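Issue 218. Parser rejects a valid record. Input:
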Amino acid sequence: MAAMVQYMVVSDGILDGTIADHPPFVTRAWLAILFDAEKLRGRVHAPVRKLANRAKISNDEAATSLAVLQAPDPLSSSQAHEGRRLLPIVGEENWYTVVTWEKHAEEREVFFHRLRQQRYSKKKTPPQSLERKSE
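Output the parser choked on:
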């Protein structure tokens, strides 16, 4: 039986954000973390080896990525926790909280609400006739 494919909405702002100032393996790790955090409402279990496997990067790159994502980022658009992206959960080894998860969850909800409204509007609009009216 094939595994069920899961999807996540990511803002195009990730391409312009300060995460893009880091090596590509950090971005891969960040996307893997965001994907896993979606399932656990902003929490993620990310031991180095698991993150490396998930993001298809080396263990050293995963360890570096975790350090970068927990470090202050003075240029970040979000200055919550000095721009850090991840905070370790005290007392839970290799567990982290994605700092801006709630903000992004609200943005995703707005996005999906608009999408539902557009689909509803299309269903309510009668189809245009292909025939031309005679004058």
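Fixed in the parser; the record now loads. The chain has a mean pLDDT of 85.
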